[in-house]
């Protein structure tokens, strides 16, 4: 079922995910530290992106770019950039996505948001463009985590890597900037520790009338 239908909402009807859907995306989803040997086909990666791209971004700017590493050659190019503690968990994943963003994302705005003259805003303000690309690219990376879970995949985001090495090895031709790595596959949860605690609403939230 859809999380929310805006048309139905205006008619007083709200559709929400059922308990199983909420468990799949949030309550029972875990971050894997080990992986099974089950592979991921390219068709599933295309489905994953097709869901990810539907999440909202500022002015539909869509700055995120994704490089999917699926083979041994790509893994070996990535290995030197990984922090020592992340090598095994990253290299064992069936797919490693480099979540990146395009600093020149605004060149696509005449097509993505034709009703507004947004390109000129960002083309004339490097700081604003960098901030917008990083914020919205990160947001799209988070959408990919949830999209992966929705498709039955497990996801492990990783920030322990050398950004410059990753960009030199994989992104230099396009001029993209690396944000974080996202390992994708089917987790091996045998003997995994219980879920770590989370902050309570009262610790992390304020409600201001």
UniProtKB/TrEMBL annotation:
Q: Which domain of life is it from?
A: Bacteria
Gene source species: Acetobacter oryzoeni
Q: What is this protein called?
A: Malonic semialdehyde reductase
In alphabetical order, the GO MF annotations are: 3-hydroxypropionate dehydrogenase (NADP+) activity
Describe the location of the Nitroreductase domain by residue ranges.
39-186
Gene3D superfamilies, alphabetized? NADH Oxidase
Kindly indicate whether the keyword Nucleotide-binding belongs to this entry.
no
* Coiled-coil regions, chain positions: none
